[in-house]
Automatic annotation (TrEMBL):
SMART domains: HTH_LACI. Transmembrane segments: none annotated. Residues 9-64 form the HTH lacI-type domain. This is LacI family regulatory protein. The keyword Transcription regulation applies. Gene3D superfamilies: 3.40.50.2300, lambda repressor-like DNA-binding domains. Keywords: DNA-binding, Transcription, Transcription regulation. SUPFAM superfamilies: lambda repressor-like DNA-binding domains, Periplasmic binding protein-like I.
Length: 343
């Protein structure tokens, strides 16, 4: 025997309980377009509470032309930097009355495409987007008419809303910091060489070495995935040859993997190999040794990104943010320190 479905409470039920019309119930729920006397409004609100009515979000979206949702598409949510950015975006969106729908591409171009199509079909009010390899599906999103903001550098000629830091300049500063310590033999663990962000970070490393008249050893460019296992395997490969004095890892996860490989060879940072990395998070500060790392202002970036979606007038805007170099123990700047916990 089929179980009888419970009766779905409607605005008609609310109107009946409050002794008013369905139109008046709608005016109360939507705060307009016509005013409702305070006593009548109270009766409607009391009826809603008593019978447990919940407005139909889909119907409201159709009527208002907004779903009160944004979509976020990222390459890999397991990356601590990406998850910290997603968290900041979710918090900022929620503070503006929006829900953020997350799409994790898992470093797959095909899955990225499917996620974008899915979110567009859901008629999200806007998209926040970081492409797997910086070759985003711009035309697809533009054809939908959906506002969107890229969370990474893209070709300025595309004339789209973008927030970014100058990754080449950031990589330059991180490498220059090692040079200022007196290190001359500096290697790099980077991402896949066909990725544009890898190219930016490698070029920043090259720029710093060239400015200091230091040799660039191509055999000390270790390309791998932006993951802990990638950093671990690249470091194992590096440790088979002559050991450099210092290393620039182009993301935090690679640095963690590198430290694991070093430990297996009874090596440590900075005593045997100084280390700095890119896109650090709070994890860098709590690591042993704490990592010297380039940090991006994710909270400020999230605020501006949501502003672009919420208040944009259609004019393409590029906002570039300052990065900072968070000094830790891994480069040799300071000895082990106690972290002050805020409780």
């Amino acid at each position: 025997m089929l179980k009888k479905q419970p009766h779905r409470i409607t605005r008609s039920d609310v109107a009946r309980e409050a002794g008013t019309s369905v139109a008046v119930v709608s005016y109360v729920i939507n705060n307009g377009p016509r005013p409702v006397a305070q006593a009548t409004k109270k009766r409607v609100l009391d009826a809603i509470k008593k019978i447990g009515y919940r407005p139909n979000g889909i119907a409201r979206a159709l009527a208002s032309g907004t779903t009160q949702t944004y979509g976020l598409v990222v390459p890999d949510i397991s990356n601590p930097f990406i998850s910290s950015m997603a968290h900041a975006l979710q918090r900022e969106a929620f503070s503006r009355g929006q829900v953020l729908l997350l799409g994790d591409a898992g470093d797959s171009r095909q899955r990225e495409l499917e996620l974008i199509n899915n979110l567009l079909h859901r008629q999200v009010d806007g998209l926040l987007y970081t492409s797997v390899d910086r070759h985003p599906y711009i035309e697809l999103i533009q054809a939908s008419g959906t506002p969107f903001v890229m969370l990474d550098r893209v070709d300025p000629a595309l004339k789209i809303n973008t927030i970014r830091v100058d990754e080449r300049a950031a990589a330059f500063q991180a490498t220059q910091h090692l040079i200022e310590h007196g290190y001359r033999d500096i290697a790099i663990i980077c991402g896949p060489l066909d990725m544009l962000n890898t190219q930016d970070r490698v070029n920043g490393w090259r720029d710093a070495l060239q400015q200091a008249d230091l040799a660039i050893h191509n055999e000390w460019i270790f390309s791998t995935s932006y993951t802990r296992p990638g950093g671990y395997l690249a470091a194992q490969q590096m440790l088979k040859g002559p050991l450099p004095q210092a290393l620039f890892a182009t993301n935090e996860l690679q640095a963690f993997g590198c430290l694991r490989a070093m430990a297996e060879h009874h090596l440590s940072a900075p005593q045997d190999l100084a280390l700095v990395c890119f896109n650090g998070t709070i994890e860098s500060e709590y690591n042993v040794p704490s990592l010297t790392t380039v940090r991006q202002p994710v909270d400020a970036m999230a605020k501006i990104a949501i502003d672009m979606l919420k208040n944009g007038d259609g004019t393409p805007t590029i906002r570039e943010f300052d990065f900072s170099l968070q000094i830790g123990e891994s480069c040799g700047c300071c000895s082990s320190k106690k972290i002050n916990f805020l409780i």
